[in-house]
Amino acid sequence: VRAGMPLSKEYTEENLQLVGDGCCNLQKQIEIAQLFGIPVVVALNIFK
Question: What Gene Ontology molecular function terms does this protein carry (predicted)?
Fold first, then answer.
């Protein structure tokens, strides 16, 4: 994302593959936090 530039399609169009890839990343980050005893909260927002 760059100031003054239009958003790329990854930010404006639905792409379930990217969501799936992000969920795998999120799961790993949760596992790492739990290894250190850090409580984890995940919140999802829907913008329409």
Answer: ATP binding; formate-tetrahydrofolate ligase activity
Q: How many residues does the chain have?
A: 48
Q: Which helix (H) or strand (E) holds 31?
A: helix 16-35
CA distances to 6, 20, 28 from 11, rounded to whole Å, are 10, 15, 23
CA end-to-end distance (rounded Å), the chain? 20
Q: Given this model, what pLDDT does residue 48 score?
A: 75
Residues 6+ apart with CB under 8 A from 1: 7, 11
Domain boundaries, the chain: 1-48
